[in-house]
Here is the input.
Amino acid sequence: MSELAPEPRGRLHPLAVLVFARKRIGASILPILVVAFTWRGGFALPVLGVLVAVGLAVLVLEWRRFTYRIEAGRLVIERGVLRHTTRVVPLDRIRGVDLQAPWLHRVLGLVQVEVEAAAGGGSAAELTLAAVSAEEGERLRRALLSAGAREAATDDPRPARVLYRATPRLLVAGGLTSGRYILAPLAVIGVIANFADDLPSTLGDRLLSEAADRIPTEAFGVTALVAVGISVALVLAAAGSLLTDWSFELTDDGDRLVAQRGLLTRRTVAIDRSRVRGFDLRDSPLRRAFGLVGVRVVAGGVAGGRPGRTTMAPVIARNQVHELALALDPLAMPDATLERHPIAARPRRLTRAIVAPALLGIVALGLQWWLPAAVLLLLGLAGAPLSLDRYRQLGHRFDGSRLAVREGSLSRRWTSLDPRAVVSYGVQRSPA
Here is the structure.
């Protein structure tokens, strides 16, 4: 097997300095400007200018000290200003290469390259090239995934076959039925709270006081506020799905599966087909009601403690799953009938869901903590139907070539796995 020819040292794009600056300053830029222009005294702006000049010099030096190259079948990255470090990763240990283009990268015509390698017992197995040109990023992706077994580029590459393409309407439906996006307002509130903490205390207290004074207290106003909140949550859920997975497309060029998605941040994920070990089908009660499901591929040896699952379809109609599953794994059995787990598993689920909240609720009643007691007892009652459904969803099947497993209720997962990908397994038993 021939190795890739050594190449000269590469550097990040010169505009990477701007990317470094944004990462260092981040969301603190607005509070800094507010303090600089509202601080009494004539020394604030000169001090800010000196800090900017020193920071820019450090960022330029950091850019100069960052180099990468591919030689002797290895990726070598050297970096560091005060502390010089060298990372060496054999190409055959690389499990995936992601190209991401956040909004600043897209404005500058750059991409961020993230390299995932087999951890080998370590946790720091991801390498990042913060900003290179789009052409260089694509070249690196091809070269790194070649693993030294073939040339990074061919004169006559095979045309890619489109396996799946998500429509905007389907993405909106996926956002409205996904807890990930329905809970997006909580993340927005967190960002606002973090920004408020960076503001001067008097300004933050004044804004908080004015907001509290405007909150309605009458029944109609509260109802209207709740309705507006729900509407905003739904809009944010749909918008979050569109922003994250806009123009999602999954292609197969014979050697790799390539998934591209994103509106403001365009992301490209490539996985060698030889490292595909199976796939997941994920849904929820709400998605099951509308016949929707998400698909993730299981890739072997992904690093950093990650589960090794990459999205192949953020949301797809149930009647399209069979075709996509067979395209990902011709030996898969997406429609196979699973063997149900023994009846002894049902009381085990019920006990775990009901006993603990019920006991805690009784203790709270004895202490006359009425509200906590009511909440705990309601959780115990709600746990009964949830436990029964979790038991009904349990199932497995092994046909000699693929192992299929299903579990979960609120978040149900159906997994098809190549048994050759199993490195180890454990057997656990408990009293209940």
